[in-house]
Amino acid sequence: MKKSEIYDAWAPAHGFWSPWVKPVLFAWMDENLVYHTHFERNWDMGWLHQVPAGTAFVADLPGTDGIALGLTMAPLGYRPIPVYNAVPGGFHREAVDTSVIAYALHYAADTLRTLNLRPDAPPVFLLDADRRGPGMIPDFVDFDNRSVSFTTDFPSANYLLAHGIKFVVLIQHHAGQPQTDLAHTLRRWQEAGVNIYTKAIGDAEPIMPLTVSKPSQFGLFWYRALTMMGLKRAPLGGYGGVLAEDSAGG
Questions:
Q1: Considering Cα of 153, then 182, then 228, then 232, what sign does the dihedral take?
Q2: SS3 of the chain: helix, strand, coil, percent, to 5
Q3: Rounded to 5 degrees, what are φ and ψ at 109?
Q4: Which end of the chain has the lower number of beta carbons within 10 A, N or C?
Q5: pTM of the full predicted structure?
Q6: Which among 207, 166, 202, 220 has a CA at the least distance from the CA of 62?
């Protein structure tokens, strides 16, 4: 498939949630290559029967686990929405391995477009839990593609509520509070009347209500500028940039 076809499989033209599919990794793909990747997971999804109508999901899972979950939920009527916003480093040593996510997006597109999901299918927003990398700028890599999520990467609470979404389940490997950057989005949704729940993907326990802790600098207009300090922006969008050229010495 061409890049545009791969992207359209994930972000169909009339999909309610397509505007929030990040194009960064799709633009990076080489459409002439055939990607073979193994990302299937055998999770028990029996807990979904307890989820009320009008529920969306935010899956903050590492690597390709989010895509695996998205494809597990898609046949059940949910629309996976990739919100990956960092680029691979090519031949450079990377802070975060995003190439495997791009491979999985490419590989899964054929399956996704055969499902004929409704335009208003409830969304499953997919994030890479490892997006922030090791913390400080690592000196053992050449390509810093650490990233963060912002409230603008997601629909507003008003948009969710206007489209019948009253509940959001945060899916992580461990139930509990979200990562700090994601907390800004979930806390805003919660304050606007969206009910937030938490779920650990690896167990069969029911979803549990979650009061999202107010993160530091919550609501401050300069939070975005503070957060981006020290992160590399890619020239064509997203996150990722070369820290230093490899030494030519012998």
A1: negative
A2: 30, 15, 55
A3: -60, -40
A4: C
A5: 0.89
A6: 202
Question: How open is the CA angle 104-105-110, to the nearest 5 degrees?
Answer: 100
Q: Are 201 and 61 in contact (CB under 8 A)?
A: yes
Distances in whole angstroms, Cα of residue 28 to Cα of each of 1, 4, 140: 14, 12, 24
CB atoms within 10 A of CB 189: 25
Residue by residue, pLDDT tens for the chain (250 residues) are: 788 999 999 999 999 999 999 999 998 887 666 655 666 778 889 999 889 999 999 999 999 999 999 999 999 999 999 999 998 887 788 888 888 899 899 989 999 999 999 999 999 999 999 998 866 666 677 888 888 899 999 999 999 999 999 999 999 999 999 999 999 999 999 999 999 999 999 888 899 999 999 987 665 554 555 455 567 777 667 777 787 654 333 3
Half-sphere exposure of 43 (CA within 13 A, CB side): 25
Interatomic CA distance for residues 3 and 174, integer angstroms: 34
Residue ranges covered by each domain of the chain: 3-242
DSSP letter at 229? T
- Which residues does 89 contact at the CB level (< 8 Å), separation at least 6? 141, 142, 143, 145, 240, 242
- Location of structure tokens 């990722």: 240
